[in-house]
């Protein structure tokens, strides 16, 4: 944040204690905003703020409404915001936020749209408000191509298992055939020879 904009921002903070009107302000949100403990409504939406949401916002014990949507904020939503018992409305949508959403009950009461367009957010609170709409970050990386690769791997394993079971049978068959051809046992070359001899002996008697 350049010095001129910073001075203007500090002036705005000193003027209002109830509502911070929307201004086209760039740069980071200063941690000194946590000093405005009597602030009830904080609207920073539709600006060009960058950087993280300061954890000092957790000191705004009287805050009832917080809107930081449509900026360029990154990082996590401070867990300290989960301790603001008077906070009824909040909007973090259309930023670059990520990480675990605070677990306070006020977060669980927000609509899913309050966290929209922040693909890196996750947690039980987000699962509750978004229900079937929200897909956990751990599952977002699974693409159709990955699923196809898994199916192909399963098919390969099936063929390998079949080959393992079929291979010993072929080896055993070839071994038996080799023995029969090379050694030519009498019972194989003339299986009925003994029966004929026995029949002749019986006739002679």
UniProtKB/TrEMBL annotation:
Membrane topology: Single-pass type I membrane protein
Keyword Glycoprotein: yes
Protein's UniProt name: Leucine-rich repeat-containing N-terminal plant-type domain-containing protein
Location relative to the cell: Cell membrane
Source organism of the structure: Microthlaspi erraticum
GO cellular component, one term: plasma membrane
Entry keyword set: Cell membrane, Glycoprotein, Leucine-rich repeat, Membrane, Receptor, Repeat, Transmembrane, Transmembrane helix
Transmembrane parts of this sequence: 156-183
Recorded family membership: Belongs to the RLP family.
